[in-house]
Design brief:
The complex is a heterodimer of chains A (about 250) and B (about 280). By secondary structure, chain A is α/β, with parallel strands linked by helices. Chain A is built from eleven helices and nine strands. In chain A, the strands form two sheets. Chain A has a six-stranded mixed sheet with strand order 5-6-7-3-8-9, with helices on both faces. Chain A has a three-stranded antiparallel sheet with strand order 2-1-4, with helices on one face. In chain A, helix 5 crosses helix 6 and helix 6 packs parallel to helix 7. Chain B has one domain: ABC transporter involved in vitamin B12 uptake, BtuC (Orthogonal Bundle). Chain B is globular. Classes of the chains: A alpha/beta (about 250), B mainly alpha (about 280).
Chain lengths: ~250, ~280
């Protein structure tokens, strides 16, 4: 089976400071993948490097065997919530319609068809009643659902989500993970940057553990081992002891 | 009305009125994107930075429009280069580069030994608009508005969520410098009406007023352009009637409109917020 994503020997640095060293892994189509690691491990950097948003010093990234440039139309990216200006004069519906922009191309405007599709995507995340609200009037969880709706509107094959579960309510988290699982069942590949180890077991079927370099990658039960985690988190957390007791 | 009669009678006033309206519209529209991208300071910088270009163009006898765009873009690039390649933050880099360009411009103009020109470039003199200036403004206006119309989607995404734009393949940096080009063009168009020093007010104040009044970008664009026109026309009226500096008068009117919106805006005005807060407190007692 061809890989949905192949990453080979990726190096990234900022002003000469190494951020990622020799990262290689591959992801099967239809996987729901968690990217975990401590703060400053380079998780967001990895996503940005994969999407070619920051330059790589070295390395190769293939999506379904092709270069990112040829695959941009098939990729959806959801940024960290803290990177968005929530006072921006835009309604929930218009924010989701942006998801249709890549396929519309230059000069063409979204029409009724795009609006109807955006509303459908909003319905999926349970936000159709908020379509006319300004995005800043929503709670954190609702905002995250709207951005997921935008990603759905892109009809992508591969999804990248940067810390989607930070600062949101439990119900929204459940809605989001439910939709992600559904996408993965339908053969879409999803990579999620995740901030901690809670619920990792329930959420993902593959894990990439990162701390400047690749600590481990593969099926969740292979990777979720005390030695891998202690290497990533340098034994800083007490829950690792618990894990070892369980093991 | 005396002003209306005068407009009908005097060609110079017609030209002034037409130019002011055009400037109100284009500053208002471009200004929306400037404030939404958090680039108010950048707007101030680029408008000042056209001065050396204008001066050099005068000296060489070429169209000052070319010189202005050249020095404006060069400054924008220099600002980006310094902040991206050192620990110097963007606002510091802006402060260094635009004052440098402005100072250079002042020296160049002084070398030309014509202080009246400097005064007019810095503060504008709308009643002395020549036909050629008017046509330049019209040409710039059409180009700027057409560009914004064509690239509305791209400007919207890169202002709202530039990372998403880059992820689906938009040239985000290219769009930034394209907007900087529009900004220098708008500055040139506004030289006669408000002058270099106060252009930034026409870019930011009507846009900020509109920002307080709506939650939709396209409404904001129309509102901001409309507010720009209202400020220009009323400003021109007072400037003509009481013999006041045109640029300064227009800016004062724009600021008054802002203060009205700041106080009375139905959703974001301070007055409403105050009343709402009082009611809430009252209902708790």
């Amino acid at each position: 089976m061809d890989s949905a994503l192949t990453v080979k020997n990726v190096f990234v640095s900022y002003h000469g400071n190494e951020a990622l060293r020799d990262v290689s892994f591959s992801v099967d189509p239809g996987s729901l993948v968690g990217i975990i690691g401590p703060n400053g491990a380079g998780k967001s950097t990895l996503i940005k490097a994969l999407l070619n948003l920051i330059p790589k010093d070295q390395g190769e990234v293939k999506i379904y065997g092709k270069n990112i440039k040829e695959m941009r139309k098939f990729i959806a990216y959801v940024p960290q919530r803290s990177h968005i200006d929530w006072d921006f004069p835009i309604t929930v519906l218009d924010a989701v319609i942006i998801g249709c922009y890549p396929t519309l191309g230059l000069f063409k405007r979204p029409k009724k068809k795009e609006k109807a599709w955006a509303l459908q995507c909003l319905e999926k995340v349970g936000m159709q009643d908020f379509s006319k609200r300004q995005i800043g009037e929503l709670s954190g969880g609702q905002q995250q659902r709207v951005f997921l709706a935008r990603a759905l509107a892109q009809k992508a094959q591969v999804f990248f989500l940067d810390e989607p579960f930070v600062g949101i309510d439990a119900a929204s988290e459940e809605t989001i993970i439910h939709i992600l699982k559904e996408l993965s069942t339908n053969g879409k590949t999803i990579l999620v940057v995740h901030h901690d180890l809670s619920k990792v077991n329930d959420y993902f079927d593959q894990l990439i553990v990162l701390n400047k370099e690749l600590i481990g990658s593969g099926k969740i039960d292979q990777v979720l081992q005390a030695d891998v985690l202690s290497k990533a988190y340098s034994g800083r957390f007490s829950f690792l002891d618990k894990l070892e007791v369980q093991a | 009305m005396e002003f209306l009669d005068a407009v009908i009678q005097y060609g110079f006033l017609q030209k002034a009125l037409f130019t002011s309206i055009m400037v109100g519209i284009i500053c208002g529209t471009v200004g929306c994107f400037i404030i939404l991208r958090g680039m108010a300071l950048m707007g101030d910088a680029i408008s000042h930075a056209v001065l050396p270009g204008v001066a050099t163009a005068y000296m060489l006898g070429i169209n000052f429009f070319v010189g202005a765009v050249f020095s404006g873009i060069l400054t924008a690039v220099a600002i980006g280069f310094v902040s991206q390649n050192s620990r110097i933050k963007n606002d510091i880099s802006i402060g260094i580069m635009f004052t440098f360009a402005f100072a250079l411009g002042i020296i160049l103009i002084t070398l030309m030994k014509s202080s009246t020109d400097l005064y007019h470039i810095l503060f504008g003199n709308v009643l002395a608009v020549r036909p050629s200036d008017m046509w330049t403004t019209l040409g710039i206006g059409i180009f700027v508005l057409f560009s914004i119309f064509l690239f509305y989607k791209e400007l919207l995404v890169t202002s709202f969520d530039p990372t998403m734009g880059a992820a689906y393949g938009l040239p985000v940096k290219g769009i930034h410098y394209f907007l900087m080009t529009l900004l220098t063009m708008v500055t040139v168009a506004s030289l006669q009406t408000v002058g270099i020093v106060l252009v930034v007010a026409m870019l930011i104040t009507p846009a900020a007023t509109a920002y307080l009044l709506t939650d939709r970008l396209w409404v904001m664009l129309y509102l901001s352009a409309g507010l720009g026109v209202i400020s220009s026309v009323i400003g021109l009226y007072f400037s003509f009637t009481y013999n006041l500096a045109s640029g300064a008068t227009i800016v004062l009117i724009a600021t008054m409109l802002f203060l009205l919106a700041f106080t009375f805006s139905p959703k974001r005005g301070v007055l409403w917020n105050f009343i709402k807060a009082r009611r809430k407190k009252g209902s708790l007692v």
